[in-house]
Amino acid sequence: MTPPAPRPRDRGIPEATVARLPVYLRALQGLDDRGILTVSSEHLAETTGVNSAKLRKDLSHLGSYGTRGVGYEVEYLIYQISRELGLTQDWSVAIVGVGNLGRALANYGGFGTRGFRIAALLDADASVLGDTVAGLSVGHIDTLEDVVAKENVSIGVIATPAVSAQEVCDRFVEAGVTSVLNFAPVVLNVPPGVDVRKVDLSIELQILAFHEQRKADGYAGLDPFGKGPA
Amino acid sequence: MTPPAPRPRDRGIPEATVARLPVYLRALQGLDDRGILTVSSEHLAETTGVNSAKLRKDLSHLGSYGTRGVGYEVEYLIYQISRELGLTQDWSVAIVGVGNLGRALANYGGFGTRGFRIAALLDADASVLGDTVAGLSVGHIDTLEDVVAKENVSIGVIATPAVSAQEVCDRFVEAGVTSVLNFAPVVLNVPPGVDVRKVDLSIELQILAFHEQRKADGYAGLDPFGKGPA
DNA sequence: GGTTGTGAAGTAATTCACAGCT
DNA sequence: AGCTGTGAATTACTTCACAACC
């Protein structure tokens, strides 16, 4: 009888806003590093490439943290955004697949920075087991369930070939992981309640190719007929 | 005097649709590999994780390629989507930055598949120059302009550390590249007419952390007070 | 004077629901 | 009978423009 689960709709922040908060956060950290104390929506918007009204509306969803006539205090805003994003606590991440991509991810500075901790690197390939990558020893995929439980992993990163991705995902989910970041070029199937985000190189390239083609067709030629293939 | 460039707005396909076409395309190729000849919007929607009405509307922007009562012919739809995305021609790609990420990208199968050709791998670090990666010899960054001109590069991929990204981007743009795919965690500045897409691991993690925190706050506790930190 | 926060207006994307074709 | 293609309705997001405040 339960109606078709209208999702407990975020009593809060629009998804589009959530996706921009990390961008603001990074820009703010840059300002902080340079010792800048306050910033206006106009300035912060410019450095992050958004419209200033949008930035103000985004921030207004978190609360009223600016000062009229002055702007936003950089450190305070960093704290508020971090808190909203859940970065004031540490999240354990497990990376499965230690090929070039997995290594790139493991060595990526962004992990080390506040908020994330790599709990384990796992792979099925015996030839990389025991390798040390980013200070961690690569473990066997069979230990996935143990690692998730023991290290309290909440985010699983899939950097395996496409063919293994769904299986790894299933194991993550079965072990209790509810957030997955997928680099394999497949659509993952997960039960409700599990969030999946995907990063897909070839999709990005194809989107660029589309626009590139548009530029070639449309502008350069100034051909009013455009579309026609012949 | 030119007004603030209201962008020659695509006389066509919504951006949200463009971003999904590659997903449909991949699913269709999977069906084709399995010898499946036709597919309904319902079925294709299910395997790509979208609503079937959305899928039909997306496809309707390309033309009327289905058959009522039957569905879509798989091969024909593959061809039409490929054509729309500009994949019936080959695009030359240059990758700058041959660390783990650059290597992962170079070896990524998605490139090889129809539509993209890696024209060059470039790096500033003398220690990797001349290395062979994915069958290509790594060249020096100073040859960027030559390579872009000679190989007719239309998409530049930036896989360098953050600090070098803007400079590499400027050189790409100066050399005539109008599409950039950026993996470095910085907001790139480009003139109008140049498309930039970014892929940013830490943004994805932070978005997941946000939702993870929501799940922890909201559901598990069933605490009606939620928000308050103490 | 300067800048935020936000209703109201405008634009884009999604979903519904069904006419129209096979 | 089955499935597409699409107007109409809905929902989400963006931008404008200005009152409120420092």
From TrEMBL, chains A, B:
The entry's keywords: Cytoplasm, DNA-binding, NAD, Repressor, Transcription, Transcription regulation
Residue ranges constituting the CoA-binding domain according to the UniProt record: 86-187
InterPro entries per UniProt: CoA-bd (IPR003781), NAD(P)-bd_dom_sf (IPR036291), Rex_actinobacterial-type (IPR058236), Rex_DNA-bd_C_dom (IPR009718), Tscrpt_rep_Rex (IPR022876), WH-like_DNA-bd_sf (IPR036388), WH_DNA-bd_sf (IPR036390)
Protein role: Modulates transcription in response to changes in cellular NADH/NAD(+) redox state.
Molecular function GO terms recorded: DNA binding; DNA-binding transcription factor activity
Biological process, per Gene Ontology: negative regulation of DNA-templated transcription; response to redox state
Localization per record: Cytoplasm
Residue spans binding DNA: 23-62
Cited Pfam families: CoA_binding, Put_DNA-bind_N
Matching Gene3D superfamilies: NAD(P)-binding Rossmann-like Domain, Winged helix-like DNA-binding domain superfamily/Winged helix DNA-binding domain
Quaternary data: Homodimer.
UniProt family annotation: Belongs to the transcriptional regulatory Rex family.
The protein's name in its UniProt record: Redox-sensing transcriptional repressor Rex
Binding site for NAD(+): G97, V98, G99, N100, L101, G102
Gene Ontology terms: cellular component: cytoplasm
PANTHER family: REDOX-SENSING TRANSCRIPTIONAL REPRESSOR REX, REDOX-SENSING TRANSCRIPTIONAL REPRESSOR REX 1
